[in-house]
Amino acid sequence: MISLLQRVRQARVEIAGEVVGAIGPGLLVLVCAERGDTEAEADRLLAKVLKLRIFSDDAGKMNRSVQDLDGQGMAGGVLLVSQFTLAADTTGGNRPSFTQAAAPQEGRRLYDYLVAQARAAHPQVASGQFAADMQVHLVNDGPVTIPLRVAPAVS
């Protein structure tokens, strides 16, 4: 799975002018399932997202995770947004190819799984809507933007 994490002061997703998901301080996570991904990749991605230490501690060092924020009197939100374009291959010309993205039915299944697992593991989770025309609004904090890829485990 591919994701792009953005540390935000706030973020929201709108569809047709209606807010469908919003958070205050936390992480906006754009996520794409790739061909061959399973629940195992989604689980590893979620574990990394929740534990990645990219929030400042009292000394100003990136030493806190989104989970650590909750214990500091500030709830750290996670906003998950599906974005198949993260799988873009631009090596073959000027039109990106998305053949590495999971098929839509499988991508939806893995995205829904990831959202459900995140809601079970973290107190504040919001989401966009798979395959919808979404407008994503955010105030990037820092800015801190981190690409994160979780490849299928090799047996």
Automatic annotation (TrEMBL):
Kindly name one Pfam family recorded for this protein: Tyr_Deacylase
Q: Where does this protein reside within or beyond the cell?
A: Cytoplasm
Protein's GO biological process: D-amino acid catabolic process
Q: Which InterPro entries does this entry report, sorted A to Z?
A: Daa-tRNA_deacyls_DTD, DTD-like_sf
Motif Gly-cisPro motif, important for rejection of L-amino acids, which positions? Answer: 142-143
| Alphabetical keyword list | Cytoplasm, Hydrolase, RNA-binding, tRNA-binding
- GO MF term list: D-tyrosyl-tRNA(Tyr) deacylase activity; Gly-tRNA(Ala) deacylase activity; Ser(Gly)-tRNA(Ala) hydrolase activity; tRNA binding
In terms of domain of life, where is this protein from?
Bacteria
Q: Which reaction does it catalyse?
A: a D-aminoacyl-tRNA + H2O = a tRNA + a D-alpha-amino acid + H(+); glycyl-tRNA(Ala) + H2O = tRNA(Ala) + glycine + H(+)
- Gene Ontology CC entries for this record: cytoplasm
Q: What is its EC number?
A: 3.1.1.96, 3.1.1.-
Q: What is known of its domains?
A: A Gly-cisPro motif from one monomer fits into the active site of the other monomer to allow specific chiral rejection of L-amino acids.
Fetch the HAMAP family from UniProt.
Deacylase_Dtd (MF_00518)
Under the subunit heading, UniProt states: Homodimer.
What is the stated purpose of this protein?
An aminoacyl-tRNA editing enzyme that deacylates mischarged D-aminoacyl-tRNAs. Also deacylates mischarged glycyl-tRNA(Ala), protecting cells against glycine mischarging by AlaRS. Acts via tRNA-based rather than protein-based catalysis; rejects L-amino acids rather than detecting D-amino acids in the active site. By recycling D-aminoacyl-tRNA to D-amino acids and free tRNA molecules, this enzyme counteracts the toxicity associated with the formation of D-aminoacyl-tRNA entities in vivo and helps enforce protein L-homochirality.
Please report which protein family the annotation says this sequence is part of.
Belongs to the DTD family.
Recorded protein name is: D-aminoacyl-tRNA deacylase
Query: Where does this protein come from, organism-wise?
Result: Acidovorax soli
